[in-house]
Design a protein that fits this description.
By secondary structure, the chain is of the alpha+beta class. It has 4 helices and 9 strands, in the order ββββααααβββββ. The protein has a single domain (2-49, 83-143), classed as SH3 type barrels, CATH 2.30.30.
């Protein structure tokens, strides 16, 4: 599995198979949504190289009788595998498919930033090394 900033989940061959969205509902409540592409013409099982201990969605879990329990199973999995902020950044950067690569981030029609993607910070901002130094980006469409 690989990650593409800001929120894409990629196979080992860089095909998008899902995405994650997080929204702060209040000062003590975070809503997280995970979207998974369940079918794709480009799907190939060997693109996925999950290691033991990862949550794997199989046909049994995806049947209608299990769909109502999936959010609770996912929540319990996340609760049991919490990481420190430092570890989250380390793991995210290790899985990032474009770290150290030349990237272009289009933040709007007028604003485009080019540089080398160097990772994320504790706020999830993308860090781009440009001629002006390290630039923190909050949103945008990234290509590499």
């Amino acid at each position: 599995m690989g990650l593409k900033w800001p929120n894409d989940l990629l196979t080992s061959t860089h095909h998008k198979w899902g995405g994650v969205l997080a929204h702060t509902a209040s000062s003590n409540q975070l809503i997280i949504g995970v979207g998974v592409n369940l079918s794709s013409e480009n799907f190939d099982e060997k693109d996925f190289n999950f290691t033991p201990g990862h949550l794997i969605l199989d046909e049994k879990i995806l049947t209608q009788s299990y769909q109502k329990d999936l959010p609770l199973q996912f929540f319990n999995y996340l609760r049991g595998h919490r990481l420190s902020t430092k570890d989250v950044i380390k793991h995210w950067n290790n899985l990032c498919v474009h770290i150290g690569s030349d990237v272009q981030v289009n933040e709007s029609f007028e604003k485009c930033l080019k540089g080398v993607f160097v990772g994320i910070n504790s706020f999830g901002q993308g860090l781009i090394k440009s001629k002006r130094g390290i630039i923190k980006i909050n949103t945008g469409s990234l290509s590499f």
